[in-house]
Amino acid sequence: MGDERLLVVGGGLAGARAAEGARQAGHTGPITIVAGEDAMPYIRPPLSKEFLTGAAERDVVDVFPADWYADERVEVLRGVRATGLDPAAHRLRLADGRTLDYGRLLLATGASARRWRAPEGELAGVHVLRTFADSEALRSALAVGGRRMVAIGAGWIGLEATAAARGYADEVTVIAPEAVPLAAAVGSAVGEVFAELHRANGVDLRMSTGVAGIRGEGGRVTGVELDTGETVPADLVLVGIGAVPETGLAEAAGLEVRGGIVTDASFRTSADDVYAVGDVASVYHPVLQSHLRVEHWANAENAGRAAGRSLAGEGVEYAEIPYFYTDQYDLGMEYSGYGTLADGIDPVFRGDRAAREFLAFWQREGRVVAGMNVNVWDVNDQVQQLIRSGARIDPARLADASVPLERLVAEASA
Ligand SMILES: Cc1cc2nc3c(=O)[nH]c(=O)nc-3n(C[C@H](O)[C@H](O)[C@H](O)COP(=O)(O)OP(=O)(O)OC[C@H]3O[C@@H](n4cnc5c(N)ncnc54)[C@H](O)[C@@H]3O)c2cc1C
Fold this sequence. Notes:
CATH architecture of the largest domain: 3-Layer(bba) Sandwich
Distance between the termini: 42 Å
CATH class of the largest domain: Alpha Beta
CATH topology of the largest domain: FAD/NAD(P)-binding domain
Number of helices: 12
Number of strands: 27
Radius of gyration: 22 Å
CATH superfamily of the largest domain: FAD/NAD(P)-binding domain
Shape: globular
Strand order of the largest sheet: 3-2-1-7-20
Bound molecules: flavin-adenine dinucleotide
């Protein structure tokens, strides 16, 4: 196995970490990353935060320094997409006509921004935010200052870009059909904290509101028409309506795909020697005993590395607790847990919600299944320990900030 060629399709964070994981596991044969974008692997979180606000430059997004690839003998084919996979022949076809044979192959093709329907979505001034180029374009547009932006969608991307836009003194209106932002991800009680944060920063939040269409003149956006008939004027529109997993190659090759490419806990797909990881993969989680597709940085980082080890022949059973974070204005948040188990449960709060310095815990049958810390730092390991312990914990003690978290962890782990 050690001498075979490993092929990684997709040069995002998951793909780059997989190459690293394979080398760490002792794979000595060639490793090639087919990177569809004309860029070395980069991370995306800064694209809606410090790069977009102008607080950081391009170098913050590199996964590895340029010489890492030569040192580790990892070849990166930039700007060429894979167009066909033949698992029986162990062969990958590229858009430029080349074919590459492999011993094992990893699909790390990620996801793409869901776009607004054409021709409205193609008007000048209408943006999506997924790639470095998207972020650069939006940053230049926002940096003019004093512009009117409408964000369609109140998810993580829409809200983070909104916070960045307010930093440039742009006026922002957010339009979304749900009653409370982020309610689907973290529930209404926490979603309200984000709603208040944005309102306090001068954002016009129009919730429970649908969009009838994006309006333009002479090929340029002029506004967003609401389902009430009102049109909100706009110089810029950010379409933040989610991402679509890039499953096309896998589907055409006959792999099992259900929302994402289906894998076991070792990232093996339904085709021999083909693996999948990152935003595109729906991976069996041994704790949940069901498949989970996670669109977050930590999953690409940790599962990516684990998939590389698996690809190199190491026995891997991936069972990490999902984790994600956000930064908006002066609010930083980390969340660990099983969102599917926390769904519909009212959290227990610990700390000062009005001051936006608190923890929230979601419990099922007394066991912590998810936890979040907002502007409280160095506690997420403890949150994860509480979840991992599976112990029943008195919610009154979880809520009582005078009971140290360390003590709760010690009791839960005893
Ligand atoms: C703006 C932004 C901000 C984010 N902020 C956060 C955050 O704060 N916290 C958090 O937890 N997560 C965040 N995320 C999510 C996180 O970035 C993703 O979960 C992560 O990028 C997934 O990595 P990936 O490698 O699986 O996929 P991707 O990063 O999507 O990389 C996949 C790569 O594969 C390429 N590709 C696709 N098809 C082909 C093909 N056929 N041939 C060759 N190449 C192909 C794509 O072009 C892409 O370069 C953010 C995402 C975005 C877009």
